[in-house]
């Protein structure tokens, strides 16, 4: 018998809260205090495999895109428990938009209005790992926001290696190191595709610097795709 997603959504939310209560966060090169002082809006750019570590460390009033699938329903409950605003939608599949455009509009409005930041798993929902989709660049352009590339590395973690994103699960009571790259702003007359490439290069370089084993694995997956 297939278990309805809503039956297990709240237990999963409770597990995510357990991670938040027991894991410790250490942040490096954090640009947010200066951006807030200057009134600069921003959006987080993370790898799909880092979603759990990111979810348990999100700041208040953050909005996140969640898939319209049954699995997405699980993330909605977890995000609500963590105080994150879930926005339903995902990218195109077989040429059909599954709410991704409307969700991106909602995220853009959330950031542009000053309500709070957005967080996007930029290589999702299907990869390849480290291949950034254009949504984050479009949001940054339309909301006049800085892009904050960040990699989150639990000291102790499980890796789901058969998955395309090598999804990482922190072990409770571990330390999570969060490394920020320099904020990326759209340059005058720069197109969305050029901005997307800069975001991708920066994010992959950041992972290569601080988590080289995972970066090499991601590079191999991109070559094989």
Give structural notes.
By secondary structure, the chain is of the alpha/beta class. It has one domain (5-224). It has eight helices and eleven strands. It has helices at 5-22, 32-38, 51-55, 70-82, 100-112, 135-143, 192-210, 212-224, and strands at 24-28, 42-46, 63-66, 85-88, 90-93, 96-98, 118-121, 146-154, 157-160, 167-170, 175-180. The strands form three sheets. Strands 1-11-8-2-7-3-4 form a seven-stranded mixed sheet, sandwiched between helices. It is globular, with a radius of gyration of 17 Å.
- The value of Rg in angstroms is 17 Å
Largest sheet: 7 strands, mixed
* Shape descriptor: globular
Record the strand order, biggest sheet: 1-11-8-2-7-3-4
Number of domains: 1
Amino-to-carboxy terminus distance: 34 Å
Mean pLDDT: 89
Low-confidence stretches: none
Number of H/I helices: 8
Pattern of helices and strands: HEHEHEHEEEHEHEEEEHH
Q: Give the helix level as a range of percent.
A: 40-55%
Strand tally, please?
11
Domain DUF374: 58-128
Region (Disordered): 206-225
Pfam families: DUF374
Protein name: DUF374 domain-containing protein
Summarize the entry for a quick read.
This is DUF374 domain-containing protein. The protein is built from eight helices and eleven strands.
Keywords, please?
single chain, 11 strands, 7-stranded mixed β-sheet, globular, DUF374 domain-containing protein, DUF374, two-stranded antiparallel sheet, alpha/beta, about 220 residues
């Amino acid at each position: 018998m297939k278990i309805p997603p809503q039956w297990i959504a709240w237990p999963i939310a409770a597990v995510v809260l357990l991670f938040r209560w027991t894991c410790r966060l250490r942040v490096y090169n954090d640009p947010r205090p200066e951006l807030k002082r200057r009134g600069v809006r921003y959006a987080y750019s993370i790898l799909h495999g880092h979603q759990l570590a990111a979810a348990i460390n999100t700041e208040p009033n953050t909005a996140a895109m969640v898939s319209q699938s049954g699995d997405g329903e699980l993330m909605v409950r977890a995000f609500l428990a963590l105080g994150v605003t879930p926005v339903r939608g995902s990218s195109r599949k077989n040429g059909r938009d599954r709410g991704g455009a409307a969700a991106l509009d909602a995220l853009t409005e959330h950031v542009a209005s000053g309500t709070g930041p957005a967080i996007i798993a930029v290589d999702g929902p299907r990869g390849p790992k480290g291949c950034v989709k254009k949504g984050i660049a479009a949001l940054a352009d339309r909301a006049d926001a800085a892009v904050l590339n960040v990699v989150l590395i639990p000291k102790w973690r499980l890796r789901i290696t058969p998955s395309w994103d090598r999804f990482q699960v922190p072990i409770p009571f571990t330390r999570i190191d969060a490394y920020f790259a320099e904020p990326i702003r759209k340059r005058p007359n720069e197109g969305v595709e050029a901005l997307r490439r800069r975001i991708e290069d920066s994010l992959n370089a950041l992972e290569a610097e601080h988590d080289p084993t995972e970066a090499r694995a991601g590079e191999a997956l991109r070559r094989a795709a």
